């Protein structure tokens, strides 16, 4: 006999299974599940404080603190697939802007959320921190969306 959770998660390729890390973000499979509260407006936040990618010029690692907020429509991102997708950037060379905006656009395309934003708070490269922000529209005025809570980079100051 199948319970409600088995029905909700039917068709997922990664959840509850041993899954290898994708070789690249393009090869990563992002999965979605039905929103269990359709018609209820609420915000979802994912934080990846140890995001890593590679500089496309030097091949050296770049580090960021990512904060992803969205207001779901019909879909939620399945968290294991999101983790694998984000970790696939560890061997991927791209600029900060390409990584941050690319993640935001891919999630927006997959989920068709009411609203989505991503903040990429990158640690300094060449002495200059680069912060990158992407949103699908203005912050919903009638829904509590907390500040992302990441202070500006101050180094050892």
TrEMBL record:
Catalyzes the NADPH-dependent reduction of 7-cyano-7-deazaguanine (preQ0) to 7-aminomethyl-7-deazaguanine (preQ1). One of its GO terms (biological process) is tRNA queuosine(34) biosynthetic process. It is found in: Cytoplasm. InterPro entries: GTP-CH-I_C/QueF, NADPH_dep_7-cyano-7-deazaG_red, QueF, QueF_type1. It comes from the Bacteria. It holds the Pfam family QueF. The active site is at 55 (thioimide intermediate), 62 (proton donor). Belongs to the GTP cyclohydrolase I family. QueF type 1 subfamily. HAMAP family: QueF_type1. Coiled coil: none annotated. Its main location: cytoplasm. Pathway: tRNA modification; tRNA-queuosine biosynthesis. This is NADPH-dependent 7-cyano-7-deazaguanine reductase. Substrate binds at residues 77-79, 96-97. GO terms for molecular function: hydrolase activity; preQ1 synthase activity. Its EC number is 1.7.1.13. Keywords: Cytoplasm, NADP, Oxidoreductase, Queuosine biosynthesis. It catalyses: 7-aminomethyl-7-carbaguanine + 2 NADP(+) = 7-cyano-7-carbaguanine + 2 NADPH + 3 H(+). GO terms for cellular component: cytoplasm.
């Amino acid at each position: 006999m199948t319970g409600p959770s088995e029905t909700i998660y039917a068709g997922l390729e990664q959840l509850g299974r041993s899954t290898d890390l994708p070789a690249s973000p393009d090869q990563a499979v992002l999965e979605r599940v039905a929103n269990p509260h359709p018609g209820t407006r609420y915000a979802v936040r994912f934080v990846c404080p140890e995001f890593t990618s590679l500089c496309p010029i030097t091949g050296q690692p770049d580090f960021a603190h990512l904060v992803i907020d969205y207001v779901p429509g019909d879909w939620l991102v399945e968290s294991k697939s999101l983790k694998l997708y984000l970790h696939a950037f560890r061997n991927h060379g791209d600029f900060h802007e390409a990584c941050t905006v690319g993640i935001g656009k891919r999630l927006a395309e997959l989920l068709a959320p009411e609203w989505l934003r991503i903040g990429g708070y990158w640690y300094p490269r060449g002495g200059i921190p680069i912060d990158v922000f992407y949103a699908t529209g203005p912050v919903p005025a009638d829904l509590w969306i907390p500040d992302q809570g990441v202070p500006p980079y101050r180094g050892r100051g």
